[in-house]
Each structure stands twice: as C-alpha cells, then as structure tokens.
Amino acid sequence: MKNFCARIIIFSLLLVIYGSVLTACSKGDETAKQKPDNSPIPVSTTAVLQKNIPLTIQAMGNAESCQTVAIKGQVDGEIITTHIADGQEVQKNDPLFDLDDRRYQQRLAQLKANLEKDIALLELARSKEHRQLRLSKENIASEENLSIQIANRKVAQATVEADKGAIAEGELQLAFTRIQSPISGVAGRILIHTGNLVKANDANPLVIINQVDPMCITFTVAEHFLDGIRENHAKGPLTLQVIPDRDLRDPIPATLLSIDNTIDRQTASIRLKAQANNPQRRLWPGMFVTLTLKLADRPNALVIPTQAIQTGPKGTFVYVVKADKTVEPRSITLAQEDKDDAVILTGVTAGETVVTVGQWRLKPGASVEFIPLKGSEKATEKKNPGEKP
Asked: Domain locations in the chain?
C-alpha cells in the first residue's frame, strides 16, 4: 500500500514538471513572435535619371518581297531553253526561258511580204489617182472616175498601215518567245521545264521571282499609337531598326513606307510597311523580325532600369527609398519599355532612388541597406512581384 502511494506521488510530480516546461516554451515562442525582425534588408538601388531619349515603339513583323512576279508565257510555244536554275539570283531583263519561235518567224516573214505587195499596190493606186486628176482638169475624165481612184488609193494606203500594225504585232509575239525577268530578284523553284508546252497566260506560272533588295517589312502596332505615328510621319520619314530572327549583328536601318487605311477591329491594331536596303541578304522573304520604330525624341524623360519595375494587382509600381532608408511602393505610368530601360510618365521624380534588386523581400515601410550589385547578380536577377501598392 505504501509503495502504491509513493508511485502516485512521483507520477504527479512528473506531470507538474512537464507542464511547467511546456508553458515556458510556449511563452518563449510567443515572445519570439512578438519581436519582429527589424534588421535592414539588403537591396541594390539606382537614381531616377532625367535625359533626352527617343520615343519608340517595339513591334514584331515579317520580312517580305516588295515585288513578287509570277512569270507566265505571253504566247504559246514549247520551252526549248531554260536559262536559270532553282534559287538563282537574276537581274532585270535577264533571259529566263526561250520558246520555239519558228512559227513566229515564218508568220513575221509572211507579214513583211504582204507589206511589200501592198506598198506596190499603193504606188499603183497613187499613179492612177494622179492620172485621173490630170485628165479631170483637162475635162477628159469624169469626176466619178476621179472619185473611184481616190477611194482606191485610200484603201491601198489603209491596207499598208494595217500591214505595218500586223508586223509590229508579229515582232512583239516573236519577242515574247524569249521570256525575261521584269525585276531583279531571286528565282524560286522552276515549275515548268524544258520540253513542256507553254500556253499564253496559263494559270500556272513558270517560276516566281521575289525581289530581295530592297526588302519590305510588314508589322502591326496597337491602334492607340496611330495618332502619334501619323503626326510624326507627316513631318518626315520615320526610321526603324530591324533585327532579323537570331541575328546578333547590328540592326538594319529601315524607313516607314505606308500606313494601312483600316484598323483591324479583331486585334485593335493597324498594319504598317517599311523598306530596308538588303545588300547582304540578311533579310529573306517570310523571315520573322523584331523592330523598333522611332517616332520622335522625348526631352527630359524620366528613366529607370526595367528591372526596377514590379507588377501587382493594381498595375505596375516601383519601390522608392525614402530619406529614412525605408521603402514605399509607388504606382507608375509607363511611356515605353525595353529590355534595359523604361521611360516613366508619372509616379516618380528625377533624383529619387528606386530599388532594382531585392524587391521580393520588401513590404511597405521596410528598412533597407544598400549593397553593390555583383556581375553574376546582374545577369541572373529577375523581377519578382512584390506587395501591392
């Protein structure tokens, strides 16, 4: 009995000790939670700069031939010679195909013979007309005979003119048996080869020639850019910088050619066309390109690095560092943005400091300390959405 009572007393003491330990730990945790970590958060920053910067529009588009010609025969005939190969570059007026011209040579010779005959008949008609005119003045021939000879001379003269027209047509048809390139460019795949019969104006072309220098670039921009584009285009040709897909060389300069006359209601965009010289053939029909269209120069623009910009539920914002080294989120309005810099319309002023690295740890009122940005961090640091302003 005594042993049983002793065991109960010992067990009760252990419960009291265990409860005390749990209570102490719980209070310790609550105390730790109640003490916020007010240590400054390391960040990298930069000042808001004010400088002259070009007002530009970024877009994507496609290179295309300014001129594309489907080569077709204008007369019937068999192809006897092909002067080009698939993909060959050709110059304007270079021969492409020769058709069998024997029929046209014979026809032209016949027409020229007819002309010689009709010229002789015209001379005879003129001689008779002069004779009748002389006899009529001497009152030997009647006026009726004179009228007949005048009419005969006019008919003979008209026949000669018709012969000359037929010869010109025959010479033109003969010339059409040599098919030449109407433009300089690059030939596509030859679709009809030597030995095949060509029909005049057949639906199927012999080959398609694409102009490659200069090249045109078509692209679309949002319709809200239209007024600015038209206003600046009216002052003079707008310039572009075109970068072919995966081309790491310098951009290709181009000039805006035209603005489409209709806005696409499905995409709320307007189509534009530019032209670029292409002597090195860096552009090719159908190639994807990125481009920058310069509208004008924006004086005293507010500029910050693009990586400073954050996106929240209420739109874009930046963290501005105040004089007491705490941060506040500030909503901004963007004028333009590229991979390096962004132009700000509203939200910050020149000389203010914005956070460029470390935003993901920030919240309104957080204390910060400035750290230099290492090269590896510059390359790998990515934007992270922060607290909404």
From this structure: 41-53+300-380, 58-66+211-298, 67-100+181-210, 101-176
